[in-house]
Amino acid sequence: AQSVTQLGSHVSVSEGALVLLRCNYSSSVPPYLFWYVQYPNQGLQLLLKYTTGATLVKGINGFEAEFKKSETSFHLTKPSAHMSDAAEYFCAVRPNTGNQFYFGTGTSLTVIP
Amino acid sequence: EAGVAQSPRYKIIEKRQSVAFWCNPISGHATLYWYQQILGQGPKLLIQFQNNGVVDDSQLPKDRFSAERLKGVDSTLKIQPAKLEDSAVYLCASRTGTGVMNTEAFFGQGTRLTVV
């Protein structure tokens, strides 16, 4: 079975600072990779995804992530944090031969004014 | 395009009672998922349907949980009898199930269940 590791269950950054949320997966074959955001009392909203092609993918709200096969990583970044970015972020993988999504335990992002 | 609809949004029940959740996926989406999200954790798959057939229910506690998707569209998830540890958010998601580009799942807002 796939496993997804998100380092740091809580991350705090100052407004305007770089956001870096880490995600590593375990798979010998690169899966499809996703980042979802969850605001309080809401469902999960897709931020971005990697399927094939360019390893640096851009998503909504200024977020981007880079797939690094050699490091089995898909870290999420944003150059300048905004107060509205405060939320829970989940990394997820889907094997390219299956339909199931596997989620990490999530990282709660706090943005300090 | 309408999103995934779930109801109710919130439910409070006593232990040993039964409860049902409803999900209406995005029109045309063949794959439907039910996830359980316990506070502070990531979503955990309970059951996955492809049209009206079950693809994966290996993590569904079948002694108390059941789910159906009779006509391959709407789905219901039932818990009977509920336990305190069932307190969680139940998320429904759907996906088209075809093609490389259509690979993400779309989630509903979830149903927050509190068992007291």
Return the string of H and E elements of chain A. EEEEEEEEEEEE
Approximately how much helix is present in the residues of chain A? under 10%
How far from one another are the termini of chain B? 37 Å
Average of per-residue pLDDT values of chain B? 92
Total number of beta strands of chain A: 12
Query: Biggest interface in this structure?
Result: A-B, 23 and 29 residues
The biggest beta sheet of chain A reads: 6 strands, mixed
Intertermini distance of chain A:
40 Å
Q: What is the assembly state of the chains in this entry? A: heterodimer
List the helices and strands and how they pair.
The complex is a heterodimer of chains A (113) and B (116).
Chain A lengths: L2 E3 L4 E5 L4 E3 L2 E3 L5 E7 L5 E7 L5 E3 L5 E5 L4 E6 L8 E8 L7 E2 L3 E6 L1
Parallel strand pairs in A: 2-12
Antiparallel strand pairs in A: 1-4, 3-9, 5-6, 5-10, 7-8, 8-9, 10-11, 10-12
Chain B lengths: L4 E3 L2 E4 L5 E6 L6 E7 L6 E7 L2 E4 L8 E4 L6 E5 L8 E8 L10 E2 L3 E5 L1
Polypeptide structure, described:
The complex is a heterodimer of chains A (113) and B (116). Chain A has no helices and twelve strands. With 113 residues, chain A is mainly beta. In chain A, the strands form three sheets. In chain A, strands 2, 5, 6, 10, 11 and 12 form a six-stranded mixed sheet that branches. In chain A, β10 (87-94) and β11 (102-103) form a beta hairpin. Chain B has strands spanning 5-7, 10-13, 19-24, 31-37, 44-50, 53-56, 65-68, 75-79, 88-95, 106-107, 111-115. Chain B is mainly beta and 116 residues long.
Q: Can you summarize this structure?
A:
The complex is a heterodimer of chains A (113) and B (116). Chain A is mostly beta strands. Chain A is built from no helices and 12 strands.
Q: Notable features of this structure?
A:
heterodimer; A: about 110 residues; mainly beta; 6-stranded mixed sheet; 4-stranded antiparallel sheet; 12 strands; B: about 120 residues; 11 strands; about 0% helix; globular
